[in-house]
């Protein structure tokens, strides 16, 4: 087997989650990813919990498969420009304007490397009145509308428990970079890929936003359900919650049979999806009444046996022990960190038949590959490297 991105060189200047996740996707696919960090400090994610063997497992997860060097971008600008000259992709998530003030923005770097794909990830994007505001995942979820439709109708808006704004931005950044790389391979021209956390979160909300764009109606929180179809969402078994779907006209009669209430399929209140949505609360009570007589496992089995989508609400410990996810889908792997030792992390969700992405090695310690990169790539001597370290350049 080969690697889909073999031979592609990536400079990763990003920190914490969105940018590092984007670059980790490239590393999983076989790209040579060089993590560039501030001397003596590094990515602030190195300080984020959880820790494994004294090292941040958070950092290890999102910086797997990368080599690492330290470099002060102000003092070591010339060294950085030499690294840029040989790069295919650069990923950064500084606030807009920071790289320009350093003389390292896209317009400056394209003069050195016209084929460079420059990926800039920020809270609000490189343009617009909010461009200079600091942006974080919870803010992106709030300002995109995600919080407004998450939670229960009689409770406050809440953010999704996962950092979906960061993750979506990282995914969109990787998709944009790969498309730009394809264009570069055809034309020789690189380009700027401008990704915003808020934009990415807005795009995830497309189906609900379309309700307003088409009907002028503002969607409200629906708990685990959806205003588009009923019944569905969640029901309460004797020992927990089951999430299911039975909203369309093909699935609804099947649910009626499972519940032992076939007559409900032709009940005027429920005969069409439009009617079921109108009477969703009555439906929810009927399904809950049926489910409460069985365990979660029994409800899930009955629904699945009828061909209906259903699943238990798994806790994280159950997810990492699940035979489908942890076994067949290989979603959790162990990498060997030079200090922490074996660390179990989440694997790539992308499965490919010929070039399967995978977490290859652990994350680098701070400046771990300074000698290797600066000697092999830039031709510096050991004495020169030691002098740069003494001056705080690397």
SS-derived structural category: alpha/beta
Amount of beta strand:
15-25%
Number of helices: 17
In total, the number of strands is 13
C-alpha Rg (nearest Å): 25 Å
Question: Can you offer a commentary on this structure?
Answer:
With 394 residues, the protein is an alpha/beta fold. It folds into two domains: 9-204 and 330-390, Rossmann fold (3-Layer(aba) Sandwich), CATH 3.40.50.10540; 232-313, formyl-coa transferase, domain 3. The chain has helices spanning 18-28, 57-62, 77-84, 98-101, 106-112, 137-144, 164-187, 197-204, 206-215, 251-258, 273-278, 280-291, 296-305, 316-319, 323-328, 370-376, 382-390, and strands at residues 9-12, 32-37, 51-52, 55-56, 67-70, 89-92, 117-122, 191-196, 232-237, 240-245, 310-312, 332-337, 341-346. The strands form four sheets. The protein has a six-stranded parallel beta sheet. A three-stranded antiparallel beta sheet has the order 9-10-11. Strand 9 (232-237) and strand 10 (240-245) form a beta hairpin. Helix 1 (18-28) crosses helix 7, helix 6 packs across helix 8 and helix 7 (164-187) packs across helix 8 (197-204). The longest helix is centred in the middle third of the chain and has 24 residues, at 164-187. The mean pLDDT is 96.
């Amino acid at each position: 087997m080969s690697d889909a991105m073999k031979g592609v060189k990536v400079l990763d200047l990003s920190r914490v989650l969105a940018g590092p996740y984007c670059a980790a996707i490239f590393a999983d696919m076989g790209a040579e990813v060089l993590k560039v960090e501030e001397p003596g400090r590094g990515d602030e994610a190195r300080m984020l919990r959880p820790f494994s063997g004294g090292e941040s497992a958070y950092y290890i997860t999102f910086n797997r498969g990368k080599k690492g060097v330290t470099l002060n971008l102000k003092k070591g600008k010339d060294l950085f420009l030499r690294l840029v000259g040989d790069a295919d992709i650069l990923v950064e998530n500084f606030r807009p304007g920071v790289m320009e003030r350093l003389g390292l923005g896209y317009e400056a770097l394209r003069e050195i490397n016209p084929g460079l794909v420059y990926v800039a990830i920020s809270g609000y994007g490189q343009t617009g009145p909010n461009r200079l505001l600091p942006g974080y995942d919870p803010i992106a979820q709030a300002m995109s509308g995600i919080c407004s439709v998450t939670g229960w109708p009689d409770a406050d808006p809440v953010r999704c428990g996962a950092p979906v704004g960061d993750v979506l931005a990282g995914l969109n950044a990787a998709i944009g970079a790969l498309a730009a790389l394809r264009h570069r391979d055809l034309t020789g021209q690189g380009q700027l890929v401008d990704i915003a956390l808020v934009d990415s979160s807005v795009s995830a909300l497309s189906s609900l936003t379309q309700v307003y764009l088409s009907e002028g109606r503002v969607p409200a929180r629906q708990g685990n359900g959806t205003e588009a179809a009923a019944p569905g969402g969640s029901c309460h078994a004797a020992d927990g919650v089951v999430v299911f779907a039975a909203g369309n006209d093909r699935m609804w009669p099947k649910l009626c049979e499972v519940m032992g209430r076939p007559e409900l399929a032709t009940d005027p209140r429920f005969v069409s999806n439009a009617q079921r949505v109108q009477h969703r609360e009555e439906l929810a009570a009927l399904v809950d009444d049926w489910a409460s007589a069985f365990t979660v496992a029994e409800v899930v089995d009955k629904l699945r046996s009828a061909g209906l989508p259903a699943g238990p609400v798994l806790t994280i410990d159950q997810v990492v022990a699940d035979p489908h996810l942890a076994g067949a889908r290989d979603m959790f792997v162990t990498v060997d960190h030079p200090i922490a030792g074996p660390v179990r992390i989440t694997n790539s969700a992308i499965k490919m038949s010929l070039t399967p992405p995978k977490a290859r090695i652990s994350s680098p310690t701070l400046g771990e590959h300074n000698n290797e990169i600066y000697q092999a790539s830039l031709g510096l001597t050991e004495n020169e490297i030691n002098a740069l370290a003494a001056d705080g350049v690397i």
